[in-house]
Amino acid sequence: MSGAGRYEPRSMLGKVVHEFEETAIAVMLGAMTLLTFVNVIMRYVFNSMVIWGLEVVLILFAWLVLFGIPYAFKVTANLGVDVILNIVSPRTRYALSLLAAILCIVYALLIAKGAWDYWAPFAGLQQTTGHWFPTGFDPDTRDRAFFETDQVPMLEWLRWLEGAINQGETYSKLPRMIPYLILPISAALMLLRIVQVTIRIARGDQTSIIVSHEVEDALDEIAKNRRGEA
Fold first, then answer.
1. Which DSSP symbol is given to 122?
2. Is the Cβ–Cβ distance between 153 and 56 less than 8 Å?
3. Is residue 6 part of a domain?
4. 117 with 128: CB under 8 angstroms?
5. What is the extent of the structural domain holding 180?
6. Which of 229, 225, 209 is nearest to 4 (CA)?
7. What letter would DSSP give residue 2?
8. Strands 148-153 vs 173-175: parallel, antiparallel or unpaired
9. What angle separates helix 53-74 from helix 12-45, to the nearest 10 degrees?
């Protein structure tokens, strides 16, 4: 039974999803770096700049962080304090880890409701009712689908959104519902990953929802390998 539960995809679908997530994170990070580099060169060499570059970088940074949160839950990369877990009995450690995972599920449900309620008006959809958990949809939700980004130009292949959510009115800039879409996506993925972690803890496949001492174990393994090569 592993301490932190290093993630290894077991099915073909799991491998495809895992590779997609890692590729998406790498692409976002690379695009941010490239756009920043191009703007620096254009600013100091050509005395001009890609005017929408900074806003795109900010959007990509937000996507990178929010997309990375559920990924971190999946691969057990979240840092945490495990002092108490290390001094209690295995049975108590199991109970505390399972309780922590269940509390994380409750927290993720709250995040999911908040994420939907924030994003929905920008997509011409209704917010949910209920203070903590959704009890229905609010028909009086204020439509914010006409809100646009500040500088990012509208993409031609997204013009169908004008008739779908903006009552046929044209967008001069990219609608905000596009960059804000990461909110419900990230919340849904985070909930899914925490549920999967909770199941693994319940089955005994891992003992904690945090990274624990996996880094120390990896360093020890590297040191042993080097001694063996010597």
1. G
2. no
3. no
4. yes
5. 12-222
6. 209
7. B
8. antiparallel
9. 150
Residue 1: inside a domain? no
pLDDT tops 90 at residue 1: no
Which residue bears the tokens 């409701």?
113
**If you search the block for the tokens 């890609």, which residue do you land on?**
50
Q: What is the mean pLDDT of residues 202-230?
A: 68
pLDDT at res. 221: 62
* Number of domains making up the chain: 1
- CA–CA separation, 211 vs 74, rounded Å? 11
Domain for residue 228, yes or no? Answer: no
The whole-model pTM stands at 0.83
The per-residue pLDDT for range 142-182, each reduced to its tens digit, is 999 999 999 999 999 999 999 999 999 999 999 999 999 99
Say whether pLDDT at 111 is over 70. yes
Q: What is the mean pLDDT of residues 78-96?
A: 80
Q: Which residue carries 């108590």 as its tokens?
A: 92
Residue bearing tokens 């972690």:
197
Residue pair 214/4 in contact (Cβ under 8 Å)? The answer is: yes
Query: Is residue 3 a part of any domain in this protein?
Result: no
List, in sequence order, the alpha helices (H) in 46-89. 53-74, 83-87
End-to-end alpha carbon distance in the chain: 30
